Amino acid sequence: GQQLNQSPQSMFIQEGEDVSMNCTSSSIFNTWLWYKQDPGEGPVLLIALYKAGELTSNGRLTAQFGITRKDSFLNISASIPSDVGIYFCAGREGGGSNYKLTFGKGTLLTVNP
Amino acid sequence: EAQVTQNPRYLITVTGKKLTVTCSQNMNHEYMSWYRQDPGLGLRQIYYSMNVEVTDKGDVPEGYKVSRKEKRNFPLILESPSPNQTSLYFCASSLSGGAGEAFFGQGTRLTVV
């Protein structure tokens, strides 16, 4: 199946700092999604992007759908300790009946208070 | 409360002993899917279903079966489990495939010895 390259694999930051992570693909995606997973829990959808160039915010989180449709980034501003977790990007190719979703391998975020 | 419920949360079984992991959602969602999560590999889609009696393979379907006889339920069946199926499994549902994977279950940690 398709692979998404997500970077960085992990980040250690101080509380209050901004964070940026991104995903790239060799294929064109029609949808980009960003999730957060807390330990022992299932992933929770943070932001969904459906159009190339789209920039969407959810509180302190901002994500963009790249113009080439092969990349997306997620920014977290003014990080707080509860931002700790694993962040995943996911992309969906094609439209119509193709609903297969491919996930990146995740970015582990640690926030030092 | 809107939720996706998986059972069991933890399961240890022996090679070759058939098992079923249940998944149920109470949101009248059309789209449901199963993922496995492995260290270093992220989340990989096993099977998905766009509606009752409509299922399709994801990226890693080998060794698994699914059924969708009712809209709310999407069980994952391992006819003859093997140790390489030891993993953390997640069920997810969304209103339609194009709306992204809005809700994930809590996960089922399966160990096959």
Architecture overview:
The complex is a heterodimer of chains A (113) and B (113). Chain A is mainly beta and 113 residues long. Chain A has strands at residues 4-7, 10-14, 19-25, 31-37, 44-49, 55-58, 61-65, 71-76, 85-92, 101-103, 107-112. In chain A, a hairpin with an 8-residue loop joins strand 9 and strand 10 (101-103). The model of chain A has no long low-confidence stretch (mean pLDDT 91). Chain B has 113 residues and is mostly beta strands. Chain B contains no helices and eleven strands. Chain B is globular. Chain A binds chain B through residues 1-2, 6, 31, 33, 35, 40-45, 48, 88, 90, 92, 95, 97, 99-106, and chain B through 4, 31, 33, 35, 40-45, 48, 50, 58-60, 90, 92, 97-107.
Record keyword descriptors for this entry:
A: mainly beta, six-stranded mixed sheet, five-stranded antiparallel sheet, globular, B: 113 residues, mainly beta, four-stranded antiparallel sheet
What secondary-structure arrangement, pairings included, does this model have?
The complex is a heterodimer of chains A (about 110) and B (about 110).
Chain A: E1 4-7, E2 10-14, E3 19-25, E4 31-37, E5 44-49, E6 55-58, E7 61-65, E8 71-76, E9 85-92, E10 101-103, E11 107-112
Parallel strand pairs in A: 2-11
Antiparallel strand pairs in A: 1-3, 3-8, 4-5, 4-9, 6-7, 7-8, 9-10, 9-11
Chain B: E1 4-7, E2 10-13, E3 19-25, E4 31-38, E5 42-51, E6 54-57, E7 65-66, E8 76-78, E9 87-94, E10 103-104, E11 108-112
Parallel strand pairs in B: 2-11
Antiparallel strand pairs in B: 1-3, 3-8, 4-5, 4-9, 5-6, 7-8, 9-10, 9-11
Structural class of chain A: mainly beta
Q: Specify the number of helices of chain B.
A: 0
List low-confidence stretches of chain A. Answer: none
Distance between the termini of chain A: 39 Å
Main sheet overview of chain A: 6 strands, mixed
What is the element string of chain B, with H for helices and E for strands? EEEEEEEEEEE
- Element-level helix/strand string of chain A: EEEEEEEEEEE
